[in-house]
Amino acid sequence: MHADHHVGLLKLVSERDTAISLNMTERQIKDNLEDLKIYIIIPYFLHKWVAIGLKHLKHQELVQIIYTNELNPEQKKLYDIFSVAEVKRKPALFKAPKFDLTDSQVKQQKQEITQLLNSMESRFRDPVKQFYQMLRKDMGISRLFSVESLH
After folding, report:
1. Would you state the pLDDT for residue 80?
2. Bigger pLDDT: 91 or 53?
3. What is the DSSP letter of 80?
4. pLDDT confidence of 67, banded at 50, 70, 90?
5. Residue 150 covered by a domain
6. pLDDT of residue 16
7. Contact present, 73 and 120 (Cβ < 8 Å)
8. What pLDDT does 82 receive?
9. Is residue 64 helix, strand or coil?
10. I need a surface site. Which of 26, 32, 42, 65 has the fewest CB within 10 A?
11. Is residue 123 part of a domain?
12. Would you say residue 110 lies in a domain?
């Protein structure tokens, strides 16, 4: 993320907090807590920066933080395995491979991935669980992945 995103994120959340405070009573906020809650998905390294900004909100309970790594099922990342120099020197290694899979292999892989994803959910923090409940209920989205990049 770039600095303008850091500042813009906090400005957006701050302006939203001000608008809610000016236009809703505390009772209305309490009665609509789940509908007013927003989820901010950020890289973990930004958590201290965002936490400082959120301390100044009147309605901190309306903001839930989710880290990008909490949305990824892979425990081992490419950048843990390969150095930046290797990635730049051998870009062909990082292109999507072409596979000729049989139907039974595709079915088996789908089952393995589904089992992995289902087992992940039991380990999610409460904000992540709530986020997925909202996605399923309100948008029909069952899974969201983040992409971590080297740049």
Report:
1. 52
2. 53
3. H
4. confident
5. no
6. 92
7. yes
8. 53
9. strand
10. 26
11. yes
12. yes
Listed in order, strand segments (DSSP E) in 1-151 are 38-42, 63-67
Dist CA 115 CA 112 (whole Å): 5
Give the position of tokens 């290694």. 93
Residue 108 belongs to domain spanning: 3-139
Q: Is 67 helix (H, G, I), strand (E, B) or coil?
A: strand
Instruction: Provide the β-strand partners of residue 63.
Output: 38
- Domain count for the chain, please give it: 1
Residue 145 lies in a domain: no
DSSP class of 136: I
Measured CA to CA, the distance from residue 127 to residue 68 in angstroms comes to: 13
Residue 75 token pair: 């425990």
Query: Global pTM?
Result: 0.57
61 pLDDT more than 90? yes
Tell me if 150 sits within 8 A of 94, measured CB to CB: no
Question: Among residues 44, 52, 25, which one has the least CA distance to residue 36?
Answer: 25
